[in-house]
Amino acid sequence: MEADAPAGTVETMSMQAALNRALAEILAEDPKAVVLGEDVGRLGGVFRITDGLQKQFGADRVFDTPLAESGILGMSVGLAMAGFHPIPEVQFDGFAYPAVNQIITQLARMNYRSRGTMPMPVTLRVPSFGGIRAPEHHGESLEALFAHVPGLKVVSPSSPHQAYHLLKHAAAQPDPVIFMEPKSRYWQKDTVDTGTPGNLHGSQVVREGRHLTLVAWGAMVARCLQVAELAAEDGIEIEVLDLRWLKPIDAEGLAASVSKTRRAVVVHEAPLTAGLGAEVAALITQHCFDTLKAPVERVTGFDVPYPSGDLEDEYIPNIDRILFGIQRVLEYRRG
Amino acid sequence: MRLTICALCLPFVMRIAESGDSRYVSLMDLDTTSIPELTAEELRQLYKLLISTRELDLAAVAWQRQGILPGYAPELGQEAAQVGSAFALDTSRDFAFPTYREMGVALTLGVDMVEYMSTHKASWHGGLYNPVTTRLAPIQAVVGGSVLHAVGWAHGQRLGAADVVRSEDETGGLPAAITYFGDGASSQGDVHEAMNFAGVLKAPVVFFVQNNGWAISLPTEEQVAGGTVAARAAGYGMAAVTVDGNDAPAVVRATRAALKHARSGNGPVLIEAMTYRRGPHSTSDDPGRYRTLDEERRDGGEDPVARLAHLLLESGAADQAFLDNAGAEAKAHTETVREGVQALKPRPGQEMFDYVFAEPTDALKAQARAWREESEHV
Predict the structure, then answer these.
(1) Residue B18, helix vs strand vs coil
(2) Given its phi and psi angles, is residue A225 left (phi above 0), alpha (psi -120 to 50 degrees) or beta?
(3) Cα gap B84→B256, rounded to integer Å
(4) Lowest-pLDDT range, A106-120, B53-67, B292-306, B329-343?
(5) Selected catalytic residue, list B54, B253, B261, B277
(6) Rounded to an integer, what distance in angstroms lies between the CA atom of residue B147 and that of residue B43?
(7) For residue B326, what pLDDT is reported?
(8) Which of A184, A246, A314, B352 could share a disulfide with A154, CB 3.0–4.6 Å?
(9) To the nearest whole angstrom, how far is the Cα of A125 from the nearest Cα of chain B?
(10) CA distance B116 to B355
(11) Pairing of strands A177-182, A153-155
(12) How far apart are the first and last CA of chain B?
């Protein structure tokens, strides 16, 4: 806890608790906000993110829906058309697939189709990414899919503090936001300064360094911080950039960091091909071409279906693979 | 009015009745008997809307042939279903969710028809009209895409309805959503999800199915298992009624009954209006590849517009002079719409960017700037 923080605003809590707190405050402050989804009411969600909210705010504000994701999203679109600010949950990332039609053809387009008369202030919460030994389709990384769709904004917090503030920020947006929660980080505790959100736009440097920039988001941020710690033992000072917003991507923040370090490795769990790492690499190349000392390296999942739990440590970028990526960049010599 | 109990369902319903198991809810048939017949004045209004829709619809096909419109989705034969259902709505509180073939609904709701037809002029996908003020959601190209929106909108009315006086009176009760779709869309999973959600949540929604016999080239018998969409309502514990979709006053009464049911907090209603798509699916379609003219004449049934004209004359609600005058007014209105549609200019290219977000991103603004610089040399 920082000594100079205002009393009572800094607490230690898990990301689950931070998200739960944020939702409670959104519901208390915004009478148009409603939370809906599978098991979000009575149960409080399978990850307990909505724990206690139905009891506190009633079944008109926090309600269970039948088990159909397209229905949850289509209903959210209709609620937004009626003036509500829906916060739907799809229970797991892979369950967003049945809702993709409503997300892409309706949620993302209604403001456009209606010429701005029917904005879609919908925050879709998606427990995302892997790392919990879950069954099939419970560990998908959909950021590239959603970032590709005009009309959607996409964000992923990496810490309880970020989760608390970014969720409140997303829910106040007049546009649809896909809020990707790193489910493997739900139970990690850290400090949350509820009184001091800081800048919630764009990326954030979470560790400063001068030899190389690691770009990551979601659960990979914590892993990259571990890598930076290890690299520091060898005298390599790594900057870790938490991208946070996956659409819009903070090109300025990327450029500022990589202009300084002159080297970049982007790390994500999603498969390599046409992943968001390609977009990040393109932006870095566009803005830092003259200063780059090596091609931007990508350390990612493979172009394979997300494997069963026994193999997920082989799939998700681990410390060794990230270090190899760093090594390739540091040892690169122009031919 | 024919009710939804189809021959196939009856044995099942009978078994439930015999078992006496109260866990099973049998078919709920919508009570339309308490809805009064339409007054002579209402019948005359209805005819004016019907003939206006017919005129504009026929003209729009001609405009496509003349190169005024790139394309159009005719509704010939469906005027009574569309006008009749929309006629029953209260636009001070209700909201309609159309597909791409609800011109008669739009006209009845008083939408500016140039702004409506702008979708077919390729000015703007959703149409240029304001959906919030007209109470007509943007034109929807995804088959079955807006059915769930109606459920969400309607459920929202209940959430805000704590202070709404529940009344059997037509003037009281909940605002209701009406969602239009066809026999083809009834195959979509979203339509199932919408009906189930509405049934569980008791949302004040009227599911208005225009069964026009065809989904482009596929006839209803190859589309709808069991032969009727309305029969499915029983599975959702939903009241339903099948109505002759070419009988405009009957459609009005069925829709009024459905709205009354929904407004009272009794949950959703399904209306299946049996009608016929007399024209092609769209101006690009060639029905000769899947049905003959003889079949069209045989299956089309009685023309809904001529039928109402006949009723007006028979009942004495109107005379031939009224009909002639209504026809002339419809032609004049159509001509005004043609002038307006022809005067539509392409929207400014900037609008491609303006409406993507309520708060555009810097990246999108940069794309818009680049577009302007490179396309307008500014």
Answers:
(1) helix
(2) alpha
(3) 10
(4) B292-306
(5) B277
(6) 30
(7) 98
(8) A246
(9) 18
(10) 18
(11) parallel
(12) 65
Length of chain A: 335
The 3-state secondary structure of B254-297 reads HHHHHHHHHHCCCCCEEEEEECCCCCCCCCCCCHHHCCCHHHHH
Residue in chain B lying closest to A121 (CA): B358
pLDDT in tens, A14-72: 999 999 999 999 999 999 999 999 999 999 999 999 999 999 999 999 999 999 999 99
Output the CA–CA distances (angstroms, integers) from residue A146 to A155, A165, A307, B250, in the order listed.
Answer: 10, 21, 22, 46
- The encoded tokens of residue A159 equal 């810490």
Please state, in angstroms and rounded to a whole number, the distance separating the CA atoms of residues A246 and B214: 44
CA torsion sign for B328, B332, B337, B338 is: positive
Q: CB–CB of B249/B84 below 8 Å?
A: yes
Taking the model in full, what pTM does it have? 0.93
| B266-302 burial code (b ≥16 CB/10 A, e <16) | bbbbbbbbbbbbbbbbbbebebeeeeeeeebeeebbe
Q: What is the rounded distance in angstroms from the CA atom of residue A157 to the CA atom of residue A166?
A: 7
**Lookup result for tokens 């009570």:** B31
Write out the E strands in A108-257. Answer: 123-128, 153-155, 177-182, 189-193, 204-207, 212-216, 238-242, 245-247
Residues A81, A83, A85, A91: is their CA dihedral positive or negative?
negative
Quick count: other Cβ atoms within 10 Å of Cβ B91?
15
Q: Are B142 and B100 in contact (CB under 8 A)?
A: no
Structure tokens at A326: 């760093």
What ipTM was assigned to the predicted interfaces of this complex? Answer: 0.94
pLDDT the model gives residue A8 = 58
Mean pLDDT, to the nearest integer, of B13-26? 40
Place of tokens 């929660």: A181
What is the SS3 assignment for B335?
A: helix
SS3 A12: strand
Q: Which of the four pLDDT bands, split at 50, 70 and 90, describes residue B376?
A: confident
Strand ranges (E), chain A: 10-14, 33-37, 62-64, 85-89, 123-128, 153-155, 177-182, 189-193, 204-207, 212-216, 238-242, 245-247, 264-271, 297-301
Render pLDDT for A96-108 as a digit per residue (tens, 0 to 9): 999 999 999 999 9
Mutate to test the interface with A, among B159, B188, B195, B361 (most CBs of A within 10 A): B159
Residue B234 pLDDT grade (very low, low, confident, very high; cuts 50, 70, 90): very high
Query: Measured between CB atoms, which of B130, B146, B197 is closest to A65?
Result: B197
d(CA A182, CA B213): 49
pLDDT over threshold 80, residue B218: yes
Nearest to A229 by CA among A204, A257, A207, A199: A207
Lowest mean pLDDT among A231-245, B18-32, B266-280: B18-32
Using CB atoms, pick whichever of A75, A101, A150 lies closest to residue B152.
A75
Of B130, B148, B359, the CB nearest to A78: B148
Q: Please judge whether B363 and A248 are an interchain contact, meaning their C-beta atoms are less than 8 angstroms apart.
A: yes
Name the residue among A51, A243, A36 with its Cα closest to residue A157. A243
Of A221, A119, A223, nearest to A177 by C-alpha is A119
- C-alpha B292: how far from chain center: 27
pLDDT tens-digit readout, A168-191: 999 999 999 999 999 999 999 999
- On average, the pLDDT of chain A sits at 96
Residue A14: phi and psi, rounded to 5, are: -80, 165
Cα–Cα nearest to B246, from B270, B216, B210: B210
- Tokens 């270090």 sit at which residue? A323
Q: What is the pLDDT of residue B25?
A: 38
